[in-house]
Design brief:
five-stranded antiparallel β-sheet
């Protein structure tokens, strides 16, 4: 089946490319139709109280998308007029200000203290704006744009939905730069390390098609996160380029055996398929490990990137051969000298001092693990955004002028006796850091019937047998103080209404902190276990996966310890993603060298000769692979103004180099020292597998013709694999 498919693909390369382009057009439409989610907090597990409370705010209260509009140094008449204009904006449910409850002519000194504190601070006043649709929906984004157009330069719109809007605009602005810079830098590296100027362009064309296939098929997921959208293209470029290099190298080998280049390519496809499948398994396993995070963002990134690797392999096998055959002539005409460092002296030094390097390897774990465990991590999402963004400026004003560093929302039953409700609110107000409490019992004086309040105000606080309580906190989201405050308030709530739900950015972020601490451990263990099993099966060994995984894990620990030693902090999602991706994407470097080491031993070389030959053969492939991953992610890390994206890409770029250094300079020492142990714990280590028994076929002239042995099928990783 594979042989027939390979032959068919190589006979009509132009037809194959035309079909690939036709499918590409469909994927472009699919990519455009895939919704992008800019709200990370929506990826929290739906069984949490905070997530369920957020749903209740959405329906029936329409308060999940709530923003605060600060108006400075403007007369009350302007603010009242602005409120009415905002209420006319499509997508806005209501705009709550003083004039919604009392007459605008009432002097500020005559207002109840609760109302005055809620709506005024010095020369500034605040308006609460609610929207019909969820906070991250396109309808709410458009409504926020319209509200901003109505405001003058003394108005500042704050709230999580506004932050999402600014994040969306920034990602849309930066994304073309991400991809363009990744392509440019990768092109420069490959042009320097490959023998033809046009070969990198052919590879990038193939990978570009695979990336578009991946983005187009995301339509079946319904939506992806903006983080996935931002890093998927550059990450897929970095981790799948190796497959193209391997196919081309195999094609070059087969060219010497066939007169027709199409036959050579057909054989190369067959030989490459099994190796590419085996090679991609470790990368796919690393990404799929992210799917075991309780934070559903991991599943989002994991599925999209695992799918991207699979589609990358499929494109290399099905489409790249056609591109290479069509461009074969120009590729061969535009050749140049390859720029690649010679590491032969360094390899001999490492092998001669292998025991000393083993000691270095073991000692390096101590500071690396310590640094990783003590590296600074932050969870406050707006810290990852530029501080001059309009939404961040407004958020800071809300904190500084109104003492609203964060807001909590409580959704509970509305039939609680008035005295119990009053008692509960008094206890909540007494909790340290609570600045103000907004509830029906605060808006309506004792004994005042509900019908005396305007219906639009009543709808804000009471709906369908439930009521809302909003608490303003002086503590910033993700702080220890905010976490302790949330626990105290939740305990008070549950004592009066066990089914009450507490939510809001600070509450959701507290759950995010609790979940990601566990997620980091779970995904690390799962990715290590999965890749351990894959390597054990590939090499039929118990000891080899221990050595290879240990080498890459050291690289991961070193990478994640850098923030501790340079005094920086990274966003919470970066270490979890890096732990899985760096392991899956760079363990191939170790597999490549180990495979060649085994082959040299099976040819009769001694340990030192075998490891020197393996290191020499693997150096160029490892360096090229690491540099492509480095360049495809480094540029994004430096130009992105969104620190979540920037941190992930910088850590990936740094991790590719650290992994390459560990494999080039430490793994040869490990293999040389532990080779006797490997031999005792591995099947067919120094001796190749026995060849298959010959099959006897009767010849026409001779009933007992001498059979020819069947060609041996090697289903293990090839030495050219990265």
């Amino acid at each position: 089946m594979l042989e027939k498919t390979a032959k068919a693909l190589t006979r009509k390369p132009k037809l194959v490319l035309a079909i690939a382009v036709a499918v590409l057009v469909l994927c472009i439409f699919g990519s455009a139709a895939t919704r992008i989610n800019y709200d990370i907090l929506t990826y929290l597990p739906p069984d949490l109280d905070s997530s369920q409370g957020e749903q209740l705010l959405e329906e029936p209260f329409h308060m999940a998308a709530t923003t605060m509009l600060i108006v400075e140094d403007m007369p009350p008449e302007y603010t009242n007029s602005l409120r009415r204009e905002i209420e006319e904006v499509p997508g806005v449910t209501s705009a709550l200000w003083l004039s919604s409850i009392a007459g605008v002519q009432i002097p500020r000194d005559f207002l109840p203290e609760e109302l005055a504190d809620m709506f005024f601070s010095g020369d500034a006043t605040m308006m609460i704006v609610q929207y019909d649709s969820p906070g991250a929906s396109s309808e709410t984004m458009e409504a926020i744009s319209q509200v901003r157009k109505l405001c003058n330069e003394k108005c500042f719109l704050a709230g999580f939905s506004v932050v999402i809007k600014d994040t969306k605009d920034l990602v849309d602005q930066e994304l073309p730069l991400y991809v363009g810079l990744a392509v440019l830098l990768s092109l420069i590296v490959m042009a320097a390390t490959m023998e033809s100027w046009l070969l990198p362009a052919a590879f990038l064309l193939s990978i570009g098609m695979a990336i578009l296939y991946n983005f187009g098929t995301n339509i079946f997921l319904g939506e992806i996160s903006y983080i996935t959208k931002a890093i998927a293209a550059v990450l897929q470029l970095g981790v799948t380029m190796d497959y193209s290099i391997f196919l081309y190298h195999r094609y070059e080998e087969e060219r010497h055996n066939f007169e027709d280049k199409r036959d050579a390519m057909a054989v190369a496809i067959q030989a490459a398929f099994t190796s590419l499948f085996s090679s991609s398994l470790t990368t796919v396993a690393g990404f799929l490990a992210l799917c075991f995070m309780r934070l559903l963002l991991g599943r989002d990134i994991g599925i999209v990137m695992a799918k991207g690797v699979v589609l990358g392999v499929a494109t290399v096998v099905l489409v790249l051969p056609a591109i290479l055959l069509i461009l074969d002539g120009p590729i061969r005409r535009h050749t140049h000298r390859v720029f690649m460092p010679d590491l032969s002296r360094a390899n001999r030094f490492v092998v001669r001092h292998s025991k000393a390097f083993l000691v270095v390897f073991l000692l390096a774990f101590v500071p690396a693990i310590y640094g990783q465990n003590h590296a600074g991590i932050y969870y406050k999402l707006d810290e990852s955004l530029p501080q001059d963004m309009p939404s961040i400026v407004a958020t800071n004003k809300l904190r500084d002028e109104f003492g609203m560093a964060s807001s909590h929302f409580i959704v509970m039953r509305d039939d609680l006796p008035r005295y119990q409700m009053t008692e509960m609110l008094e206890k909540m107000e007494a909790v340290e850091g609570v600045e103000a409490v907004v509830a029906y019992d605060k808006l309506a004086p004792t004994g005042l019937p509900e019908f005396f309040l305007p219906q639009d105000v009543l709808d804000i606080v009471k709906q369908d047998g439930m009521q809302i309580v909003m608490l303003n906190s002086a503590y910033e989201t993700a702080s220890d103080e905010a976490g302790a405050q949330v626990e105290q308030l939740n305990a008070i709530l549950k004592s009066y209404d066990p089914n009450g739900k507490m939510t809001g950015e600070a509450v959701l972020t507290k759950d995010l902190i609790d979940i990601t601490d566990v997620d980091f451990q779970v995904t690390s263990y799962i990715s290590i276990a999965a890749i351990f099993v894959i390597i054990a099966i590939t090499f039929q060994s118990i000891s080899i996966p221990v050595l290879l995984v240990a080498a890459i894990e050291l690289a991961i620990f070193v990478n994640q310890s850098v923030p501790y030693f340079d005094g920086s902090v990274v966003p919470f999602v970066a270490p979890t993603v890096i732990g899985c991706v760096q392991l899956g994407a760079t363990v191939d470097y170790a597999i490549l060298m180990t495979t060649r080491f085994r082959e040299e031993l099976q040819k009769g070389a001694d340990r030192q000769e075998a490891i020197l030959a393996a290191a020499g053969a693997a150096d160029s492939s490892i360096i090229t692979s690491a540099l492509v991953l480095f360049c495809s992610t480094l540029g994004v890390g430096f130009i992105s103004k969104i620190e979540i994206i920037s941190s992930i890409c910088i850590m990936l770029a740094r991790g590719s180099i650290i992994s390459a250094v560990c494999i080039l300079f430490l793994l040869p020492a490990l293999l040389a020292v532990f080779e006797p142990v490997i031999n005792k714990t591995s099947l067919h280590w120094r001796k190749p597998k026995p060849k298959a028994l010959p099959v006897k076929e009767p010849a026409p002239a001779l009933q007992a013709a001498q059979p020819e042995p069947l060609p041996e099928t090697d289903t293990e990783l090839q030495p050219e694999q990265i």
